[in-house]
Structure formats: C-alpha cells, structure tokens
Design goal:
The chain has helices at 13-25, 36-45, 50-54, 87-95, 101-112, 127-138, 157-171, and strands at residues 2-7, 29-34, 59-61, 79-85, 115-120, 142-143. The protein is an alpha/beta fold.
C-alpha cells in the first residue's frame, strides 16, 4: 500500500505527524508533501522540526515539485490524506486549482477515482467553507473534520489526535486500533 500524506498550513499539524508515525509503524509506504505555512505552524505547535517530520516518510517532495511521480495518474498509489487540510487547500481542491503539488495530487485522486480524505481544520465555518466542502465531496473527496468523539473518554491530547488519525485510516480501509470504538 502507498499513501500520500499532505500537511497543509492549518492548526493541527499533529494530525499529519501522528499519521506518518502510524503508517511508518505499519510499514506502509508514504509520500509526503508539507506546505511552507505548515512548516511554520509545526515550529509553533510542536517540538518537531520539518526535518524530523520529513524523516518519517518513505518519500518527501517539495511543495512545487511537479516532476514528482505522485503528480501523475500513472503512478499507482492508493490514496491521499491531507491532515490538517486548510481552507485554502480545500478551496483550491474544490475548484480544481492545482497550483502546488499537494493540490495536484488531490486532483489526481479525484480524476483517477482514488480515495482523498480531507481532515479539515477550521472553526467556525463560513458559507464559503461549507460550499467548498460540499463541492469537494461531490467531486469524490471524503470530508473528515477534525472533530473527535468523546465516547472513548480520551484523557490526553494524544488520545484526541489518535481518534482522528484512526478515523482517517478507517476511511482509507487500513485496520488500526488507535482509539476505542463505539460499543
């Protein structure tokens, strides 16, 4: 299995970092694209450097590297998870603007019928955000807002992050036990 992980410039870069850690532990091949703004947020919200995060991935690409293999529909990867997905990235995907590698790979997923999971991270939501979510969903994306459930009685921030990463992996059909399931 090969998964593309995008980390865009929204609060919640911990979701993408944890996703990479879990996928590495599962020996799943990953392709990583981190936006410039995500690298800045990473330094504010975490103790990880961009280099630390990049080292978790099997392959790393620059934000503007349109020669990357994942930019082509002929490269057979299984899907993409953008965690977190900023409203800028969502908007670009929703209207088909592939102005960087992250949005290009998302476009490849949509046009090739591959799974695209957008872990949106914003609150409150404007009408524009909601319309972009609907537009992306209608095009085939899975909208997975970073809204963890509390029925598992999470005790730490890591527990909350694991719930959302586990839910994203569920939608990618990757078995995991990162969180306590209902019932």
């Amino acid at each position: 299995m090969e998964i593309v992980v995008g980390i865009s410039g929204a609060s919640g870069v911990q979701y993408g970092i944890r996703l990479l850690q879990v996928l590495a532990d599962m020996d799943i091949r990953t392709h990583l694209v981190i936006s410039k703004s995500a690298k800045q947020i990473m330094q504010v919200e975490t103790d990880y450097s961009p280099f630390d995060v990049e080292s978790l991935a099997s392959n790393m690409y620059g934000e503007k590297d349109f020669t990357a293999s994942i930019a082509s529909g002929s490269h057979m990867f299984d899907g993409m998870i953008i965690a977190p997905c900023s409203m800028k990235t969502l908007g670009s995907i929703a209207i088909g603007v592939s102005d960087n590698l992250m949005t290009r790979v998302a476009d490849v997923c949509l046009k090739e019928g591959r799974k695209l999971i957008l872990m949106t991270r914003e609150t409150p939501l404007s009408r524009i955000h909601l319309e972009n979510m609907l537009r992306a969903q209608q095009a085939g994306a899975i909208i997975l807002p970073a809204c963890p459930g509390f029925y598992s009685k999470p005790q730490t921030i890591d527990d909350l992050v694991n719930i959302m990463v586990g839910r994203a992996l569920d939608r990618m059909e990757i078995k995991n036990e990162l969180y306590k399931r209902w019932g």
